[in-house]
Structures are given as C-alpha cells and as structure tokens.
Protein: V(D)J recombination-activating protein 1
Organism: Stercorarius pomarinus
Amino acid sequence: IRCPVKECDEEILHGKYGQHLSSHKEMKDRELYSHINKGGRPRQHLLSLTRRAQKHRLRELKRQVKAFAEKEEGGDIKAVCMTLFLLALRAKNEHRQADELEAIMQGRGSGLHPAVCLAIRVNTFLSCSQYHKMYRTVKAVTGRQIFQPLHALRTAEKALLPGYHPFEWKPPLKNVSTNTEVGIIDGLSGLTLSIDDYPVDTIAKRFRYDAALVCALKDMEEEILEGLKAKNLDDYLNGPFTVVVKESCDGMGDVSEKHGSGPAVPEKAVRFSFTVMNIAIACGNESKRIFEEVKPNSELCCKPLCLMLA
C-alpha cells in the first residue's frame, strides 16, 4: 500500500500499514490508503480496448444508466448517453464536435444534402471528374464525408427532370401516351420543313408536355402552399388552379470545344422550354393569384421541354 501522507509516499506491506501509520501523528483519518497495482498489465485506456473489454469495464455504469433511463426518460438509453456525451464535449469546449453530434442526433447529419452538392457543382462549373476529385480530397483530409458522392448527385438530379413524379389526369387525356420515357429523338420530327429551310441534323431529348408541367408544379409546391397560406386560402388546397404558361425557344450558343486543340464543330444547342408565369385559384366568383414569377425573362425559371443539339 502507498502511504497517502504528503511528502511520505512510502510503499508498505499491508500487514505493517497500521504500524507505519502510527508514526504519522498528524494523520486524522487513518483509513485513507491507495492500492498499488503490483504486477499484471497497466490499466489500458477505455478507447483503446476491444468492444468486448469496453462492455466488460462499463457493465456497472451501463446498468445504472439503464435504471435511470427507465425511471426518468421512458427507457431511452441512447438519448441519455448522447446527452451525457454532448455535455462532456461542451464542458471541454469541444463545440465543433458537439455541434456535429447534435446534427446527427437530429437526423441532419454533418454532411451536405445531395441537392446542395449538386447546386455547388453546377454553380461553380465543375465537371463530374473535377467534383469527384474535390469530394475525394475533402474526405481524405478531413476524414469526414462532407460532400456527397456522384451517384447521390445523379439521384438528386433525376428528381428535377420531367417524368419523375407520378400523376394522372382526371378525366384521362385522349390520345396521350402514359409513357414518360421519351428517350433520344430527332428534335425536328413533326415540323413541316419548307423548301428554303437550311438542312439540319438534330438529336434531342424531348419530354412529354404534361409530364414536364407536372414536374414544374411539383417543383413549385412550396411557393404554391406559401401563396395559399398568405391569402388564407388553405381550404382551397384541391383547386381548381389556373396556370398561365409562357413558351419559349432559346438558342444556347455553340458547344464546340472552347479549350484545348479539338476541332471546331458547327453544333448549336437549342432548348424549347416554358415558364410558369402565374397561378391563380377560383374562390367563388373571383380569381385570386397565389403565385407570380418575379423575373419571367430569367433563364433560371425556364423548365425544359426539349433539349436539342442541331
């Protein structure tokens, strides 16, 4: 046993401890002593142990936490442990780690949402390979997945394309296919060419008009609900709505290789699109406008109908 008296710190056999202690006249509480770990392994740090050893060492504490959780928190052991961990982190001023943990506990996760990553990739003009390089670098340097992988971005992108949202017309539209997968076609099919027209070859991705309109309105769901709420029209959720649409065709310039030594190609990109100008709802005899496009000439509110290389 190690003697607890200051400036003594002597190691004494258990049997001779009482005799040694009597030599310290100044000791009031003579039962104080601390065991020395003689031989055997030194006690390892909890986090360096195997999961089984961790469980073994924390068995008693786990039992107490379980009893507390059942008594006070309706049996939610996870919430008790997480909160203890948060408090411990904040007590040591580890606020960044605590904020991340709190985000995970609230189901937000510490990474960015795939749609946010997609917006970053588009707005900073990153190609897929450039984005992937950035994603890998950030993950390697920080050890955390802040950006989402490319496949998650592709899934998020699908939700923005016409044909993603299921819908049905009541009554059903006559002579309209229910198939929204149109695929690659000749963009000028259905256009009657006059004799003077310049011969042009096209490939295009064309969407069904009704599928594109449904996708645009689904995209605007929040604005529509906000508009209803602002005008106190929550009772009119089922419509009928009047949607005013402006159609437009927009040349997107040439898409020849701008950088590097590639050949100059004569291709032009063309987009047929529409813009939702305003949405109104019929309330009795009057019509109330619940949405109006503030910048109707901006290309940001163009919804695609046909994307074509000519």
The radius of gyration is 35 Å. Strands lie at 184-185, 203-206, 241-254, 268-283, 286-292, 303-309. Residues 77-91 form the longest helix (15 residues).
